[in-house]
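Hi there. Long-time user, first ticket. I'm pasting a complex I've been working with (about 290 residues overall). I'd like to know whether the download I got is complete or cut off, because the file seemed smaller than I expected. Thanks.
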Amino acid sequence: MSTPSASLPGGTWTLGDLTVTRFGYGAMQLAGPWVMGPPADPDGALAVLREAVGLGITHIDTADAYGPHITNRLIREALHPYRDALHIVTKVGATRDQQGGWPPARRPEQLRRAVRENLDTLGLETLDVVNLRLGDAQGPVTGSLAEAFETLVELRQQGLIRHLGVSNATAEQVAEARAIAPIVCVKNMYNLAHRQDDELIDELAEQHIAYVPFFPLGGFSPLQSSALTAVAGRLGAAPMSVALAWLLRRSPNILLIPGTSSAAHLRENVVGAGLPLSDEDLTELDKIGR
Ligand SMILES: NC(=O)c1ccc[n+]([C@@H]2O[C@H](COP(=O)([O-])OP(=O)(O)OC[C@H]3O[C@@H](n4cnc5c(N)ncnc54)[C@H](OP(=O)(O)O)[C@@H]3O)[C@@H](O)[C@H]2O)c1
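Hi, the file is complete. Here it is re-exported in full:
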């Protein structure tokens, strides 16, 4: 059964001219172990994607590096032709090596190829939003993004990309990108226990730029905290639900892309993100990452 998008927790946000639900879906968990190869249960992966759209989610986050190529192909198989309301956000700037590492691929010719591959694997003529992935697997790394970002601006001018964003970026790189061309989102690691971007989130909110936390639930190491467990216990809710509800309350420009390979977890997360949190809950949760 379809749920109207506006009734999802958090309502909607606009990425440039694209309206998306603040509750989105991160597709990375659909690939095989450590985001390499196909999933053990391909039909289950397709079912999760169809469930996401059936629940009214209109924002899916992906990358051609997931698998590689696996999650994009699953998205295409499950959902193509796409509903007009559905917006797929992808990223370029990293590739995969045989050990499952994420080496950078930010030279102009690599970025051009990556955009073509994303168009091909997703079955699109224009990519709604492309994030330039910076840094490395350990996090952001300082340094100019100009050459790489300007390449994406050219591809946008050619009509292959509608909007741009950056990922795994320092505040200085965000500012550098914005001086070159408008961005609609920043996707960095952030959750209840990792609050390094608090200031950046507030600055972006003032500029109506979305902040999209990756690893909202802790990623490969699930969030664990006694304060989180205490609040969840008091509310009779799952800790993951509290973590998502807190993010939606943290700032109006935060968009959620929790990852899951389980339709049951997806449904639990959608309901959980709508959990009402009291001022007392928020004060207690606020202490976790500070
Ligand atoms: N540089 C970047 O831009 C970047 C980097 C990393 C990720 N991302 C994006 O961010 C998205 C989110 O990150 P993520 O998926 O790595 O991490 P995450 O959302 O923090 O956590 C995903 C993990 O939480 C588990 N989980 C989800 N719901 C649960 C529930 N209700 N109960 C218990 N466990 C639950 C999942 O396991 P199950 O599968 O068993 O549910 C999975 O192991 C990714 O999917 C990807 O699209 C972007």
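A couple of notes from our side: The two ends are 41 Å apart (CA to CA). The chain has one domain: 5-286.
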